[in-house]
Design a protein that fits this description.
The structure is a single chain. The chain is α/β, with parallel strands linked by helices. Helix content is 36%, strand content 16%. The chain has 13 helices and 13 strands. The strands form two sheets. Strands 3-2-1-4-5-6-7 form a seven-stranded parallel beta sheet, sandwiched between helices. Helix 4 links the parallel strand 6 and strand 7. Helix 1 packs across helix 13 and helix 9 packs across helix 12. The radius of gyration is 21 Å and the shape is globular. 44% of the residues are buried.
Length: 374
């Protein structure tokens, strides 16, 4: 079978998070899989140096086009260039508008439908309508969590048998408990002397509830946290992040709340390993790869009790109500309390259930079921 893949999300930047990270890691896992299938990877721009190299069953097809690539240029190529793929897989919400072969689309989450105010009208309408037609016309849909699957069934009335859940994973070679000796990277990230710190890692945007975390930290730092404890907020700016910095100033937490900006993959394991706790109190998550990474590094995780996060953390997670500041605070104190080592061991056991090889295997099985001969 010849599988066509829109892999532009993996090719956009070296600073991969979210769907960019999903696309890149899944590409590598498909590349490494022992399969008789052949792949043609469709891109707007030449492949970055870190994408898998071409080989006998793996080729890139670069078709530049300035605008509406998935609506115009890609469909034209799928109809008229030979050989045609037997199935076409879009690793993002947008599938080609029309195609002569069955399509499969991967959906991260539908959180945007709940928070249209976080987008410009143009961006929201495109995301809403393009995701809608992509899901409806797709032969099969891949969801990255059971929570996302339920949302797809509710919003688009897609039959459950046409939706495959493929959990995400983490880099097992990179993410493991790192040395407790203070690393230069951590020194630099926390701007000087390394103190006890609570860690958040993710894009800075409203859905991550970073403001709620800052308020909870501010309340705890008055009396309950060990003296000198910092809150380290790591991740690149996404959108509507100005109020996060303003809140830090309003609460006079400069020096106690440290913003690192984007963190390279190679620096994350030490940063996570040396954290007292990892906290992700999001209002919405399609999955939450950093939760897996933190558990793999031997750090207890505090996560929201909603959306997909309970599927990720399982019995290793400490669950909080993201809308309740006191609940977030109690979760942090539990994470750093006397039961910390038990939580660490549960996390290390939990992450063994996840691998990119398994994600690739389930993805291939879904693509196979989408073909007419199946």
């Amino acid at each position: 079978m010849l599988i066509g893949i829109d892999a532009n999300e993996a090719n956009l930047t070296a600073q991969r998070v979210g769907v960019n990270q999903y696309a890149f890691e899944l590409l590598e896992a498909l590349y490494a899989s022992k399969t008789k299938h052949k792949f043609v990877i469709y891109l707007k721009n030449p492949p970055r140096n870190d994408l898998p190299a071409e080989k006998e069953n793996w080729h890139y097809r670069v078709i530049p086009f300035p605008k509406l690539w998935t609506q115009t240029r890609l469909p034209f190529d799928l109809f008229f260039h030979k050989p045609r793929p037997d199935v076409f897989f879009s690793m993002t919400h947008y599938a080609p508008r029309i195609a002569p072969m069955p399509s499969v689309v991967a959906i991260m989450d539908l959180g945007f439908l709940q928070t249209p105010e976080q987008f410009t009208s143009r961006d929201f309408n495109q995301l809403k309508h393009w995701t809608g037609y992509s899901v409806r016309q797709a032969k099969k849909v891949i969801a990255i969590s059971e929570h996302t699957k339920k949302d797809i069934m509710r919003e688009y009335h897609k039959p459950p048998q046409d939706i495959t859940v493929t959990y995400l994973a983490y880099d097992k070679k990179l993410f493991k408990p790192a040395s407790k000796i203070v690393n230069e990277a951590t020194h630099r990230l926390v701007h000087g002397e390394v103190k006890p710190y609570i860690l958040f890692l993710g894009s800075l945007r409203p859905s991550k509830n970073i403001e709620g975390l800052i308020r909870a930290f501010a309340k705890l730092s008055l009396s309950e946290l060990p003296v000198g404890t910092q809150l380290v907020i790591a991740g690149k700016k996404a959108w509507l992040y100005e109020q996060i910095f303003q809140l830090t100033r309003d609460l006079k937490l400069e020096g106690k709340v440290v913003f690192t900006g984007f963190v390279e993959e190679s620096e994350k394991p030490v940063l996570m390993s040396q954290a007292a706790a990892f906290v992700m109190p999001s209002f919405y998550e399609g999955f939450g790869i950093p939760v897996l990474e933190a558990m793999a590094c031997g750090t207890p995780v505090v996560v929201s009790n909603i959306a997909s996060l309970p599927e990720v953390a399982g019995d290793a997670g400490i669950y909080v109500d993201p809308y309740d500041i006191d609940s977030i605070g109690r979760g942090i104190m539990e994470a750093i309390g006397p039961e910390r080592s038990r939580r660490v061991n549960k996390g290390l056991k939990r992450v063994k259930l996840f691998s990119w090889a398994k994600t690739a295997q389930l993805t291939l099985a879904c693509l196979e079921t989408a073909t007419p001969n199946h």
